[in-house]
Write a structure and sequence with these properties.
2 domains, binds flavin mononucleotide, TIM Barrel, eight-stranded parallel barrel, alpha/beta, Alpha-Beta Plaits, 12 helices, globular, binds iron/sulfur cluster
Length: 369
Amino acid sequence: MKTEFLGLKLKNPVIVAAGPWNRDGRSLLKGISAGAGAVITETIVSDALIDVRPRIAYNGLGAQNIRLYSDIQVEGWQREMDIAKSRDSVVIASVSAHTPSELAYLAMKMEKFGADAIELGISSPMGESLEVVASDAERVYQMTKEVVRSVKIPVMVKLSQNATNISKVAKAVKSAGGAGVSAINTVRCILGVDVETAEPTLSTYGGYSGVPIRPLGLASVATIAQTVDDIQICGIGGIEDYKNALEYIMLGASAVQVGTSVMIHGFDRIQEIVSDLEQWSAKKGIKEAKSIRGMALENLKSFEEIKIEPVVSRVDTPVCQRECTACVTACIYGAIQKIEGQILLDPEKCTGCGLCTFVCPDKKFKLDW
Ligand SMILES: Cc1cc2nc3c(=O)[nH]c(=O)nc-3n(C[C@H](O)[C@H](O)[C@H](O)COP(=O)(O)O)c2cc1C
Ligand code: SF4
Ligand code: SF4
């Protein structure tokens, strides 16, 4: 499934996100070899980086990182870009800085080194100032405008779900001449606390990523698609498989990025997503992402439009031999009983909340509209 994103023709919409799995030229080549449509460098900054240790935690569901940025100075990226561009590839450079001029300087350098586009990584939840910038549409406008003025290649801006009004920030990117936005960056978090030692999992606030943030990413992408005209969007957050990629595309994204899944499962995951996406689109006769882009937005209603007519749950095959009482427990309205392997559903008590249709592993419940 081809896509056009930021004016670049990508062979597929799957992009390897910025992060330490893309810390140098050789790492970027891994994503390219796995078949990604494009790859994005770890964020490049002008100040020398000293990594804290430890800096990445994972609880089996999501990850917290306090990794910060690339430990290769911008000049060193000339060598890394030569390696990454040695194959037919689309390489996007992620850069970050505190001032528009510093940001423009880094972007110009990376353009000179062969980057096909720039991603402004100005929305990391680590470091108070950047978090403040990510919510400040005027600052984002100034930064984007300075970079757009300084380079010829397309510029996208990575947005934060922590922003108070993501639409306003996306509109600022567009009016500053940005070619698109990517959403979302990691979400400010504390992964957990060891209650025996009172130690947080990592020693400071970090960025949350992986499967648990996918619903936040999907909502951000849909919000931007619905509220900002003609803006190109790259969906990010918790993509594990081709279906997740399609979810983002159907909510308005032209391309998607994958990060934590590569970190945990390796670059084979990219190969898998790309090949499953190809199979799915071949079966459906879909050649380009744009023919399904935003399809789900037509079914996304505002709260005011949602039905309020009575809806009740129905169970067609009430015999249930499983060692399970999930539906009985989850029906907070007391409409379900399980007696000697029979599911008894009282339509008088059912308020049509819908939860039983999700908790039953056998999908026994249906809602009658
Ligand atoms: C360990 C780690 C390091 C990251 N480093 C960067 C970075 O350098 N620049 C950036 O813009 N995003 C960075 N991210 C954020 C990812 O690019 C991505 O936006 C986020 O993780 C959500 O996507 P995911 O759920 O697929 O990981 C990092 C994420 C992780 C887990
Ligand atoms: S729809 Fe809600 S109220 Fe009705 S049976 Fe299911 S869980 Fe109970
Ligand atoms: S949730 Fe499904 S499997 Fe579990 S008791 Fe209810 S009907 Fe049976």
